[in-house]
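Bench log, entry 3. Co-assembly request; chain sequences pasted below exactly as received.
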Amino acid sequence: MATIKEIAELAGVSRGTVDRVLNNRSGVNEDTAKKVMTIARQLDYKPNKAGMALAAQKKKYLIGIIVFSKKNPFFDEVLAGFEEKAAELSFYGCEILVKRVAYHPDAQISAIESCINEGIHGLIITPYNDKKICDALNSLNKKGIPVITVNSDAENINRLTYVGSDYLKSGEAAGALMQLTTIGKVTAGVIMGDSHILCHSQRHSGFVNHLQNDSRFDIVACEENFDDDLKSYDIVYDMLSRHPEINALYFTAAGVHGGCKAIQDLDKAGSLRIITHDDMPTTLDMIEKGIITATICQQPKWQGSKSLELMFEYLTSVEKPILEKCYYSELNIKIKETI
Amino acid sequence: MATIKEIAELAGVSRGTVDRVLNNRSGVNEDTAKKVMTIARQLDYKPNKAGMALAAQKKKYLIGIIVFSKKNPFFDEVLAGFEEKAAELSFYGCEILVKRVAYHPDAQISAIESCINEGIHGLIITPYNDKKICDALNSLNKKGIPVITVNSDAENINRLTYVGSDYLKSGEAAGALMQLTTIGKVTAGVIMGDSHILCHSQRHSGFVNHLQNDSRFDIVACEENFDDDLKSYDIVYDMLSRHPEINALYFTAAGVHGGCKAIQDLDKAGSLRIITHDDMPTTLDMIEKGIITATICQQPKWQGSKSLELMFEYLTSVEKPILEKCYYSELNIKIKETI
DNA sequence: CTGAAAGCGCTTACAG
DNA sequence: CTGAAAGCGCTTACAG
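Structure output for the full assembly:
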């Protein structure tokens, strides 16, 4: 592996100059720069990360992370991903500033402001899909603070990229799984999180799209639980009472535990085919008990670590990398026997 | 973060001495060592990886990797994991030496020998379950070259750990998936790889165990294809001709493509429920075509990167880490809509 | 526009 | 048994 020192010797200049050329720091004679670049290319120079890391010891890159409140255990896993990656990058000077706030535009706005005050260099956020947030994020961008959305995207945001699930596809997968695991006439109900949340409505569409041409399926009810377990209990209880013919349920988001409780209380545990998303402990418990048939997971940990990795790479690279529009996590179906 | 320099100043000794104490290098006065250790503990000293990496620039850790031949595309993925991790560890001086050999004890033996000749410091291997291999690996251990088994384990080997699938569990998962996706009477056939291969027979047992108390299921045939697609074609063709009542097939290992071809040629594509393992391109193609219902994957890439990570950590750490007996990969069910 | 020098934290001959 | 010094590769004030 070629080093800066070698290149400097070959080019007959100092190491400092080579460094300037290689990192596009301004103020180097054009001819000198060309000569250095040619040699660097010939030797296929790749910077040594250990050297970079050591020299960067005093530098600091502070990356703000805004995800949802502690009430939603799904984000515990995403956070685990952030922390794992942050530990790995800590010796390159990467530091993270985590804020877990309520799912509300105002809470997010004030979290964003406090991030700015603490001097973040980049922001990773699960945005509430709202005009206010959109504006706030776009003005961050103008300040030169790049934004990456994670887990959930928002419309019209000027973000670097989105890291998370393909929600339409995951809804379709839920529909397909429903087909695979049922026979005959299926009367289904859907329990959504919040129809104002982009990803929840996308899962719903995916599910409906996939099943609409299958004459076996009839979707007779769809309600929102706003990701709240108590609300979820009531809604499911009510839905199943009004529609005793329902024999399958699809939960597009959280509130799985409350909903399943209602099913247990109605003594319908065995007679319903239930598909959910994600694998928080309460969901795993319901799978273990045989109440939920399968759950479709979305690599929350990967979402955290990947988004931080991309942000850090972007912040530290000289030639800004070209990012994909979206980085989709894999869908992972789990049943009792694979958890 | 405390540094060696700080500790040296506080202890009133040189940095060299601190280094000797911290890394258990011999020949330090006991009292001095104690003093240094106390201070290090007080400051919660953690070595700076960048510093270590830079200083280790001239060192080299060569790790041998022996997996199966290029005919088995599953190992392409495992290899991708090895290479990704090797790139990450390269600036700590980690180098890998990959040998892909035929699934045969003699081929493995000679690969092991050539690894020794090239001076490996550790070996990661997917061992053929055979006395000869076992002896060879145990003698490696005696030479001080640690061994990790990956993807497949062998009996009575003195290895550091095993990184791979829990095959019994994955067979059970296949059985459960079969139950979930069928109704009424199911007459099943099993296509095994090689009954002498530990993991293949474990999957078979898991599958049979899971289904034996379910009166809906009848397993009427079980044949070996030795992971060969042509052989697999013949076996499946023959099995389905002799047992026209078969309406479900389980492939415990490779040879999926050949088997599915036979099914197509017999015009039975729609009428069989088929469960397989892994997601090599040919398998994905058969899922896309609706011939295979679901496939259970085992994180091949993770198996490669995890095993290399563990080996490198073991080789480079001062206090040898205590490893688990086994590191199991997650099981990941995929259907057409999630690939 | 460029160079010489110091420094990031750890390791390692070498000298004593 | 211990210290002083050089070195790993990259970066960064500072001086010119």
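DSSP finds 13 helices and twelve strands in chain A. The mean pLDDT of chain A is 91.
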